[in-house]
Amino acid sequence: MGVAEKLHSAVESFIRTPRKMLIDGKWVEAASGKTFETPNPATGQTLARVAEGDAEDIDRAVRAARKAFDEGPWSHTGPNARERILLKIADLIEQHADELAEIETLDNGKTLTESRNVDIPAAAATFRYYAGWPNKLYGETNPSEEMFFNYTLREPVGVCGQIIPWNFPLLMAAWKLGPALACGNTCVLKPAEQTPLTALRLGELLLEAGVPPGVVNIVPGFGETAGRALVRHRMVDKIAFTGSTEVGKEIQREAAATLKRVSLELGGKSPNIVFSDADMQAAAEGAIGGVFFNQGQVCCAGTRLFVEQKVHDAFVDTLTQSVQTMKQGSGLEPETNIGPLVSQEQLERVTGYLDIGKKEGAKVVIGGERNTQKGLEKGYFVKPTIFTGVKNDMRIAREEIFGPVVSVLPFKDENDAVLQGNDTLYGLAAGVWTRDVSKAHRVARAIRAGTVWVNCYNVFDAAAPFGGYKESGYGRELGRYALDLYTQVKSVWLRL
Ligand code: NAP
Ligand code: MG
In CA terms, which of 166, 401, 402, 465 is 20 to 30 Å from 338? Predict the structure, then answer.
């Protein structure tokens, strides 16, 4: 496989052995005996084989999680012990950071620089942040009539089914497991079929950190089978999902049958608004990072780039020059700054949108096609693309492309920017670039989105909430807000 000689020995042995699923603290084959392959997106070749979980495996995993929750040991594991385990998980992720980063890059395609400097440290930071919460989950005492005493207990929700996408595989696992475990829940995690590997390596680290059997179960498999079975299972109390709006809607419909709680972090078509009074260099760098980070496979990518009319042409020139210098290649190569898309399916989806954009009359300033240069022809590479002449009602401005494609749209003034920016079904994030402080705050208030970045983009912290307005979903992950997703409140009355 060409790059094998460069790999960490722990990574080589991890991918050479077919990977099993984690149920009740043990690594087991699928009940059906089936496996599936995960390809390396840079080469299109098989990277590893993985056990393919379906409804029967999900049932075993859910029963293990139910038992660990209802009978213990997790329900009897106190807050200080949970804190120590979460800290240990964070430490182990850091100790194995190089190895995890390589697995992530091989499985997802993202550059090693990004895996090593963003995904893996952020996953560790998420567990470390949530390690601080178990002994700070307070109830309250409430005013009541004299003869009563009323207080609340903040209790875990129970068994959480967690379904995650392929764009930040380890980090999404951390966003789900960190707060769920801090609050005392048990979990069944289904990683995306395209990128199951780091979640499975994480499973080994969880056991090493002392997570008891059944508390976290990891079942790789397909959404249609394993994912759906998890959503339907009567013993699951809550579903947390990150992925497409289409599947999010289906999950909400399915969950209605058992009235599970649901939290959804879905797609976006985020406006990134550049005013003429902005620091143009910083805005151009922010616009590039805001859309091409992770090959554009980011739910909050700034894919609708609104530029004030009078600086539009000059700004597009600066962007184009910057894109010209981007080097595309395998994520393992240190000089690469844009890698392949995750899968053949994603390649077809994104190139399909490139055709749609051209047919709709948008102009390709740079890119606009698959990259088939020598050495890349078997991988899923799409050239970073800038479209101009885009109207907000074109499909490329309305639908999530999830690839390295930006649509540039001119605007007249602040009001026009806000109206066009909000003219979308989504509401996940937005960017504002200006030196005018009042304008920055006015626009931040006016935009209907869960996150607004001013003079920056794609900034995250485990303490800062993240989630959507409108069809970008509901519920807030990260920060103390995620505790609301993973706890419920009990009111206790006592007659004095
Ligand atoms: P997706 O189908 O929404 O996948 C997300 C997760 O949901 C995966 O684990 C998937 O499993 C699972 N899933 C799929 N169908 C399910 C069902 N009926 N019941 C339960 N779980 C189910 O996303 P995708 O097909 O990989 O990507 C398609 C588009 O979604 C992208 O092009 C992009 O626009 C968007 N997307 C958004 C995000 C985000 O962060 N907001 C992330 C990824 C993709 P399998 O992978 O095994 O099918
Ligand atoms: Mg893969």
Answer: 465
For ligand 1, the distance from its centroid to the CA atom of residue 409, given in whole angstroms, is 28
Instruction: Mark the residues whose beta carbon lies below 5 A from ion ligand 2.
Output: 38, 107
pLDDT digits (tens, 9 = 90+) for 379-406: 999 999 999 999 999 999 999 999 999 9
Mean pLDDT of 470-489: 98
Domain ranges of the chain: 3-266+473-493, 271-461
The atom number, within ligand 1, closest to the CA of 472 reads 41
Mean pLDDT, residues 376-381 taken together: 97
Give pLDDT tens digits for 308-329: 999 999 999 999 999 999 999 9
| Architecture per CATH, 3-266+473-493 | 3-Layer(aba) Sandwich (3.40)
Distance in Å from the first CA to the final CA of the chain: 73
Q: How far is the CA of 244 from the centre of ligand 2 (A)?
A: 18
**Are the CB atoms for 364 and 386 separated by under 8 Å?**
yes
Nearest alpha carbon, ligand 1 atom 38: 243
399 lines ligand 1 (CB under 6 A): no
- Catalytic: 265? yes
* Distance from the alpha carbon of residue 247 to the mean position of ligand 2, in angstroms: 20
Residue 481: CB partners within 8 Å, gap ≥ 6?
465, 467
What is the CATH T-level fold of the domain 271-461, as seen in this structure? Aldehyde Dehydrogenase; Chain A, domain 2 (3.40.309)
Ligand 1 atom with minimal separation from the 298 CA: 40
How much of the chain, in percent, has pLDDT values that exceed 90? 98
Spot the catalytic one: 52, 114, 265, 333.
265
Average pLDDT, the chain: 97
Is the CA virtual torsion 121, 124, 128, 130 positive or negative? positive
The pTM (predicted TM-score) of the whole model is: 0.97
- Return the pLDDT at 5: 52
**Ligand 1 in contact with 176 (CB < 6 A)?**
no
Active-site annotation holds for 300:
no
Atom of ligand 1 nearest to the CA of 254: 19
Query: In angstroms, what CA-CA distances link 178 with 126, 228, 267?
Result: 6, 23, 22
Ligand 1 binding pocket includes 192 (Cβ within 6 Å): yes
Question: Considering just the CA atoms, what is the radius of gyration of the chain in Å?
Answer: 23
pLDDT digits (tens, 9 = 90+) for 3-46: 545 789 999 999 999 999 999 999 999 999 999 999 999 999 99
Distance in angstroms (rounded) separating the CA atoms of residues 476 and 466: 5
Gap from CA of 448 to ligand 1 centroid (Å) = 24
Ligand 1 binding pocket includes 54 (Cβ within 6 Å): no
Judge contact between 87 and 128, C-beta under 8 A: yes
